[in-house]
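Notebook, student rotation project (T.W.).
Task set for the rotation: take a protein with a known small-molecule partner, predict the structure of the complex, and write up what can be learned from the model alone. Partner molecule chosen: phosphoenolpyruvate. Sequence and SMILES entered below by T.W., checked by me.
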Amino acid sequence: MDRIRIRGGNRLNGTIAISGAKNAALPLMITSLLTPGTLTLSNVPRLADVRLLQRILQNHGVDITVAGKRAGQTGMGDVMHLSAKDIVDTTAPYDLVSKMRASFWVLGPLLARCGEAKVSLPGGCAIGTRPVDMHLMAMEKLGASLEIENGYVIAAARKGLKGAHIVFDKVSVGATHAALMAAVLADGDTIIENAASEPEIGDVAECLVKMGAKIEGIHTPTLRIKGVTSLAGCEHSVIPDRIETGTYAMCVGMTGGDVLLKDANASHLGAVIDVMQRAGVSVDVKNDGLRIHRNGAALAPVRLDTEPFPGFPTDCQAQLMAMMTMANGTSIIRETIFENRFMHVQELARLGSDIHLHGDTAEVRGVKKLTGAPVMATDLRASVSLVIAGLAAAGETMISRVYHLDRGFETLEDKLVACGADVARISG
Ligand SMILES: CC(=O)N[C@H]1[C@@H](OP(=O)(O)OP(=O)(O)OC[C@H]2O[C@@H](n3ccc(=O)[nH]c3=O)[C@H](O)[C@@H]2O)O[C@H](CO)[C@@H](O)[C@@H]1O
Ligand SMILES: C=C(OP(=O)(O)O)C(=O)O
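Predicted structure of the complex:
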């Protein structure tokens, strides 16, 4: 199994190109199930999760071809053509779905297009119990009948889905994707209230509109959908990854230096930029991305809660905590989205951090020095928090189980090495 070795202490200087967003690319790929036409996605990141979803979609009969970047195309990722002319299998099996959360989202489109689906209950990062009750409630509201048997959701809507009024009790990215992707082909009007307004939902909604869907209220918590009988193919470019952007911003905040995060979209990062500035890191919005710089001054501690968009994202919580381990004072970080998203705390402790957990709140007492150590990645964002800490720790940090990192960070070592970090992948 690969490991990542970091020799800490180097400042970061240069340019890092931000990849297409994993959490937009995955649901965008799934929208291909809604049309017999060809969906062409550009700026698709080269990630393990994308490859896994390709296998899941191919199992349903989606024909997928991947090519490198085209001339004139913005972004750095692949171009992917997805064509679901015929759905040959409406079952999403356990061995594939259990590895990745987003794969469960095929439920809505399969039901909408085929009137039936059998989808294994999902997996994903082990950061809480992560129920799917709101996904199921939305499908039932849209007229599906559901049973859970042997770990599978078995859903049917033989006469098609019907428009409905769906009100979510709490904000869920996945349940919003599911409801939206099902409602676009339902008969009649659907209103989704308390919808997630994360930029990735907006990206999917905009792609669906290009395919012929009728959606109002995009980027707001109330989505109004008029069902259509069919959708066509289209071309769409995946938005830049705001979580990758926040992560590299925190790498620079941690080490000091001056880095341009090329193609980053500041409008998706308001809460992250605010926290970085409060911590004493300079963030300048440029035409071609975000410039992050910190020269000398100590980091100031911060106090924050994770929240649904536009609040501070839970997917950047571990990275911020790593950065705050060396702040000049005590930071208070409250995790409000997932009940078990502090697995990085005990690994950060191996590097010499001083963090105390009180229920959903971490008290991060800044230390003057971290020291390299062997550590273990436990989930995607927790693993990259260890990279951030390792970049500033004296000596060598060796991170094992880096397959978690490969789910969501494209060529992480190359991007950091290009800015002067001493990072290497040790194979085998
Ligand atoms: C692939 C992807 O895009 N994953 C993201 C998605 O995950 P995911 O879509 O799984 O997260 P949700 O937004 O659904 O979860 C938010 C909260 O709602 C709860 N919940 C969710 C569904 C449900 O049916 N019942 C329920 O109680 C969850 O346990 C959690 O406490 O949004 C999270 C919150 O921004 C991010 O951390 C993940 O990176
Ligand atoms: C938690 C994440 O992914 P998933 O929902 O697939 O577990 C993530 O992207 O940070």
